[in-house]
Design brief:
Length: 196
Amino acid sequence: MRVAVLVSGGGTNLQALIDAKAAGKLPNAQLALVVASKPGVYALERAAKAGIETAVVRRKDYASADAFNDAMLQTLQSHGIEAVVLAGYLSMVGQNVVRAYPDRILNIHPSLIPSFCGAGYYGLRVHQAALKKGVKVTGATVHLVNEAYDDGRIVLQKAVYVEEGDTPETLQRRVMEQAEWEILPRALDLLTSGRL
């Protein structure tokens, strides 16, 4: 199955997928395209090093959200994409893309949904909220994408303990290493092997 990975930053979750593919853990997935929300992000370099084709589709290059969403869908379809992974992608996916790929778009979120999710919860903000609330366990969730923020059916979750003295940065790193980088490749394997 030809997979596109949508990114907005450094691409650590993209790298987890690249590594899983290299280790033979994604036998039914072809990482065919990486689409960035802006040029110059390190994820594009990761993709290039792995021999994956890249594209940039920036919201500010289009007069309307509809035009942007149409450009995203055209980019995906012109590359024969069959499934999509949002890996640190910070934009809402348009309804036209969701409808074109029903139950074939995965998102990784750095909390145990339904905690600390929805509009405005991304990146360090999620971990800041978890620490402010005083939770003892957090983690990551892979879910299918629908037309609302962090609302689609949960595919996999993994818990991570909050440790004394954690900062948002240390917690973010532990959640990535112990949860995100493990469950995202597993979820993509489930999707591409028809086991979802």
